[in-house]
Amino acid sequence: MPDLIDGSENITVHGIFNWILLLAIFSIITVIGNYIGYKHPITDSLIGMFILSLLTLAGVWMERYLPFNISSIIYISVMGIILAFPGMPTSEFVSYYVSKIELLSIVTVFLAYVGIGMGKSWNEFKALGLRAIIVTVLVIASTYLGAAVVAHIVLVMTGVPV
Amino acid sequence: MGEDIITDKNNPTNEIQHIYREKTDKRILKKNPWKDYGLHFTVLVLVIIAELIGPIKIPITSGVEVSIMPLLYTMVLGLVFYLAKPIKWIQRKQSRVAEGAMMLFIGILIAKLAVSSGQSMHLLFEMGPALLLQELGHLATILIALPVALLLGFKREAIGMTNSIGREPEVAVVVDKYGFNSPESRGIFALFIVGTIIGTVFISFLTSISVSLIPFHPYAFAMASGVGSASMNAASLGPTLAAFPGLETQIEAFAGFSNLLSFSIGIYIVIFLALPLTEKLYYFLEPKIGRKAIVEEKEGE
Question: Is this complex's ipTM strictly greater than 0.85?
Answer without folding.
Answer: no
